[in-house]
Amino acid sequence: MSRRAVIEQAKGVFMERYGVGEEGAFARLVALSQSTNVKLVQIATDVVARSGGATGAENGRSNWIDRALDAFGEPAVVVSPIPTERGSVADFQIDHVNRAAVRWIGRPRDRMLRATTASIYPSAKASVLINVCRRALATGTLVGAPWPVADDETQADADQRRPVRVHAARVSTVVLVTWQVLSGRVTE
């Protein structure tokens, strides 16, 4: 497929996904390219591939990344940035979820796919996740942070729970997020 064709197809995906016009879609592609320092054609190719435009979807699970993520023992998701008109990242859309994440988060896969991180997690966890993903996307380095204890969790619950760390790494124009349960107990 030619560069122009893939960019046009990516604009169509953004127009449908974000409800913007052709110029708005192109502006978002350009802003994402500039904020990640990745060529526009590569961003467009990734957008088209993740949208299922290049291949047919098989219950939303036709992409090789889903099968690879399912091999992880720990919860893992792939998220893509949702850029604002000015190019900053407002939130992240969940593109892929492995089986461990489905069990850990406790929501059906189809309710998580295409949802935003802010809509899946309470405010404290969403804030940590969005910030970790933003830093990984901006720097291209592995970023980790402690995962917050739930607001409604009692100290007795926290004492029985092992601490968890969230890790994020940029892979091209998306971010791979994993959660790692650490040995030991929470001592907060």
UniProtKB/TrEMBL annotation:
What GO molecular function annotations does the UniProt record carry, in alphabetical order? Answer: RNA binding
Q: Which InterPro entries is this protein grouped with?
A: ANTAR, CheY-like_superfamily, PAS-like_dom_sf, WH-like_DNA-bd_sf
A Pfam family that the UniProt record links to this protein: ANTAR
SUPFAM superfamilies the UniProt entry points to: CheY-like, PYP-like sensor domain (PAS domain)
SMART domains, sorted: ANTAR (SM01012)
Domain ANTAR, residue spans: 1-48
**Name of this protein:** ANTAR domain-containing protein
Species of origin reads: Cryptosporangium phraense
